């Protein structure tokens, strides 16, 4: 059974976490987190290549959900917050092309300097995503098992490193599910 500390615990039932861990996409120990992130990155690589031929259609929303490009922008935001701000204690704000969750008030998003209505190309977002993946990999490479237990004191609250990385894993997995679902709908049109 995988341990899920806050802030993810209310959103990820233990049974689902265990399913993801059995599939190699979630963990609570350093070797498992490294392996899960590698598998999730490979999942996204394959999906990006699958999506490329769709061109401008990647800006289409399916069922009122984010477009493929917007979904990738959200992963940039997730990394900027949970790795940059929380784990690395970076004073840098999220990238202006990041996509925050819809529950953030517009004034907060504006204060972050994020341009929600921006229309970056797939290649621009893939480059940003690759940069953030390298950032996560660098953190994972420099981390020790004991480092997972470190409590980070960010403006978002006190979180353990393991919790921040689990948010990244879960968001990366969940948004991959949404992206592949929506790609199938676009391909079927």
Topology:
Blueprint: H1 14-22, H2 30-51, H3 68-87, H4 106-112, H5 122-142, E1 151-154, E2 157-160, H6 161-187
Helix pairs in contact: 2-5, 2-6, 3-5, 3-6
Can you summarize this structure?
The chain has one domain (29-187): Four Helix Bundle (Hemerythrin (Met), subunit A) (Up-down Bundle). 56% of the residues lie in helices and 4% in strands.
Overview of this structure, please?
The protein has 189 residues and is mainly α. It has a single domain, classed as dinb family like domain (Four Helix Bundle (Hemerythrin (Met), subunit A), Up-down Bundle). The chain contains 6 helices and 2 strands, in the order αααααββα. α3 packs parallel to α5. It has a two-stranded antiparallel ribbon with strand order 1-2.
Approximate helicity band: 55-70%
How many domains, in number, for the residues? 1
Beta-strand residue percentage: under 5%
Q: CATH superfamily membership, which one?
A: dinb family like domain
Biggest beta sheet summary: 2 strands, antiparallel
Q: By helix and strand content, what is the structural category?
A: mainly alpha
Q: What gross morphology would you assign? A: globular
Query: How do the strands of the widest beta sheet line up side by side?
Result: 1-2
Spans of at least 5 consecutive residues with low confidence: none
CATH architectural type: Up-down Bundle
**In angstroms, what is the radius of gyration?**
16 Å
| Level-1 CATH class name | Mainly Alpha
Instruction: Give the number of helices.
Output: 6
Fill in the CATH topology.
Four Helix Bundle (Hemerythrin (Met), subunit A)
First-last Cα distance: 41 Å
Question: How many β-strands, per DSSP?
Answer: 2
| Rounded average pLDDT | 95
């Amino acid at each position: 059974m995988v341990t899920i500390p806050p802030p993810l615990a209310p959103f990820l039932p233990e049974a689902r976490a265990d399913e993801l861990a059995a599939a190699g996409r979630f963990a609570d120990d350093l070797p498992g987190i490294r392996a899960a992130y590698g598998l999730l990155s490979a999942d996204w690589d394959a999906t990006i290549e699958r999506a490329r031929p769709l061109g401008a259609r990647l800006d289409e929303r399916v069922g009122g959900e984010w477009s493929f490009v917007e979904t990738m922008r959200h992963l940039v935001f997730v990394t900027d917050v949970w790795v940059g701000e929380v784990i690395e204690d970076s004073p840098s704000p999220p990238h202006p092309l990041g996509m925050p969750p819809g529950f953030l008030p517009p004034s907060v998003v504006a204060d972050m300097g994020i341009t929600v209505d921006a229309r970056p190309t797939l290649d621009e977002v893939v480059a940003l995503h690759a940069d953030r993946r390298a950032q996560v990999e660098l953190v994972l490479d420099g981390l020790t098992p004991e480092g997972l237990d470190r409590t980070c004191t960010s403006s978002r609250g006190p979180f353990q490193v393991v919790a921040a990385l689990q948010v990244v894993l879960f968001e990366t997995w969940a948004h991959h599910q949404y992206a592949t679902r929506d790609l199938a709908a676009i391909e079927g049109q």
